[in-house]
Amino acid sequence: MHSIAIIGSEGRMGRALREYITGTDDIRSALELGSSDSMEQLLQSGVDCVVDLSNGEGVDTHGTAVVNAGLPYVIGATGYALETVERMQAISAERGSPVLIVPNFSIGANLMILFARQAARYMQAPVVTERHHDRKADAPSGTARYTAAGIAEVLAGQPGSAKSSTAEDYTEQLKGVLGGNQDMVAIHSIRGAGYLAEQQVLFSLQGESLAVEHRSIDRSCFMPGIAWCVRNIHRVEGLVVGMDRIMEL
Predict the structure, then answer these.
(1) How far apart are CA 125 and CA 202, in angstroms?
(2) Which pTM was predicted?
(3) Which of 33, 42, 4, 35 is nearest to 20 (CA)?
């Protein structure tokens, strides 16, 4: 049985997680903290895993204390400072307490990211196209940027220079038509009422093309991923960004 503490239990994701784990046989909620609750009880709880679904400001405030307490820590919040991550990384290495930062909890989305990194070893001209609902204010999505960063990491280790499809290689007759450019990976963002969260990663090579695509049909898709992270936090050494980094093919 995995006992967990949920930070941000009063939010939409927190409520959904609380409901989801009631249907599991091996995960129980030992402690639930809202925005006004003290962290002291958490730091002394000895739970098997802390799941943080609060926000960036919350992680900046209590993140290092959680890691310093030696509690395995899964972070689903966004918007925290780089300095916070660096401090948590240093403490994690010293204390041996695992920290897993997860840009996207969807199992399918993480497989897409994993497959995209594999494809980048063999194919060229990577293009990430993400589609989200019209209430998502930022663009591109964090998942798209994380996917592009993983592809760029692979390309940087490849001999020679891989062909891209960004404005660096072509002349745009309409500015922006070739998308944003993150380390020579093109990113396109689409916003509309008919989408929830979708992403496609395209590659090409002479005479062929490859598309890896994922669609989130309902927000409930994130719950099995959180449970998977709790069950597999023991695979994490130090601080790791991305659940795809600890997934096996």
Answers:
(1) 8
(2) 0.89
(3) 4
234 is catalytic: no
- Asked if domains 2-101+220-246 and 107-217 share a fold, the reply is no
| CATH number of the 2-101+220-246 domain | 3.40.50.720
132 is catalytic: yes
The letter for the amino acid at 35 is: S
Answer yes or no: CATH 3.30.360.10 is held by domain 107-217.
Answer: yes
Of 62, 132, 188, 214, the active-site residue reads: 132
DSSP 8-state code for residue 239: E
Instruction: Select which of 2, 62, 136, 188 is catalytic.
Output: 136
Over the stretch 87-141, which tens digit does the pLDDT of each residue have? 999 999 999 999 999 999 999 999 999 999 999 999 999 999 999 999 998 899 9
The token pair at 149 is 């960063």
Q: Kindly report, residue by residue over 48-84, the tens digit of the pLDDT.
A: 999 999 999 999 999 999 999 999 999 998 889 999 9
Every domain of the chain and the residues it spans: 2-101+220-246, 107-217
